[in-house]
Amino acid sequence: MRVLAALSGGVDSAVAAARAVDAGHDVVGVHMALSRTRDQFRTGSRGCCSIEDAGDARRAADVLGIPYYVWDLSERFEETVVADFVAEYEAGRTPNPCVRCNEHIKFATLLDKAVALGFDAVCTGHYARIETRPDGTRELHRARDLAKDQSYVLAVMGPERLARSMFPLGDVATKEETRAEAAARGLSVSAKPDSYDICFVADGDTQGFLRSRLGSQPGEIVDGSGVVLGQHDGAYAFTVGQRKGLSIGRPAADGKPRYVLSVEPVDNRVVVGSADELAVQAVQADRAVWFAEADGSFPCALQVRAHGDAVPAHATVQDGVVEIALDQAGALRGVAPGQSAVLYDGTRVLGQATVTAALRSSGATSGLVR
């Protein structure tokens, strides 16, 4: 097959491309330039879009003996990922930019362009497995190394794009195995640190980034009864479950910490309460993407964070809306609108949807939090 290998400049994508070459595929490497303002060097940069990364990707391609290109997708990235990130926070929701990047860039723009150029598949360094059933249906599963599993952020891609994807690292036992393989192959990125946090927020200061885009928007921090406890400089800087940065001068009656229960963008208010009030008993979601037939009610496991645990639940699908009731109320805390809800059956991904509301399971203010 003709395979386009996405080379980020990290060790995972380099080893994935090497394995595709070993499998006998006709492989071409491509690095996606996603930001016009990325840091020139990785020092102080916590993401994966530095110019240094592009150079590391080129050197990996040279070692593998494959053609290498850089595709400028920065305009598309700004329009679909960065703009969505800012708009979601401004609307009081909590987006996951990695999910949106996989949806709009890696498995939409990149894959569509690859197919148009005659490639059969796109190969990436994601940790996830693809299993093929006897009837030819492809299933997305968790990686063998659960600590590195990335099926959560891949669930948005859908079955059609999964059919043209390759994840050669899905069966790797540990990240150390990947690094050892890279070193044995003579890849200089074998000891390169992992990228983390949001790639377009190089210094890790998400609030500062949002403030630079949205400006100062002072408002009130209140409790569930509407009593004003403090002030904020922008409700967009807060998310459900957050504790740090509230700067509330008045202590709670019970002396316990307070957390963000909801963000109300219309009134520019942040509502806070106790940890117990964050407990959730059900989640509502829409814009679902399914890898399996989904109708009526069925048991599943629900995961709402990339590195969170999946908890037993039952999902009901009706008129495009997914209602997910937890088998044990309070098994999840602080679920926010905008988060990605991924449903599993064991290791298999059943589908993904975007959280629109969460029903809290306790406290005087329990109800739908939007």
Summarize the structure.
The protein is an alpha+beta fold and 370 residues long. Helices cover 25% and strands 30% of the residues.
Distance between the termini: 47 Å
Based on Cα principal axes, name the global outline.
globular
The named CATH superfamily of the largest domain = HUPs
Low-pLDDT parts are 363-370
Q: Could you tell me the strand content as a percent range?
A: 25-35%
SSE arrangement, N to C: EHEHEHHEEEHHEHHEEEEEEEEEEEE
Looking at CATH, which topology of the largest domain would you report?
Answer: Rossmann fold
The helix-and-strand class reads alpha+beta
Helix percent reads: 10-25%
Return the CATH class of the largest domain: Alpha Beta
Q: The biggest beta sheet, please? A: 6 strands, antiparallel, barrel
Main location: cytoplasm
Site (Interaction with tRNA): 126, 339
Subcellular location: Cytoplasm
Function: Catalyzes the 2-thiolation of uridine at the wobble position (U34) of tRNA, leading to the formation of s(2)U34.
Write the layout of secondary structure elements.
Layout: E1 2-6, H1 11-22, E2 26-33, H2 51-64, E3 68-72, H3 74-90, H4 97-116, E4 121-123, E5 128-132, E6 138-142, H5 151-154, H6 158-162, E7 165-166, H7 175-184, H8 206-214, E8 219-222, E9 228-232, E10 259-264, E11 269-273, E12 279-290, E13 296-303, E14 311-318, E15 321-326, E16 332-333, E17 340-345, E18 348-360, E19 368-369
Parallel strand pairs: 1-2, 1-4, 2-3, 4-7, 8-11
Antiparallel strand pairs: 5-6, 8-9, 10-11, 12-15, 12-16, 12-18, 13-14, 13-17, 14-15, 17-18, 18-19
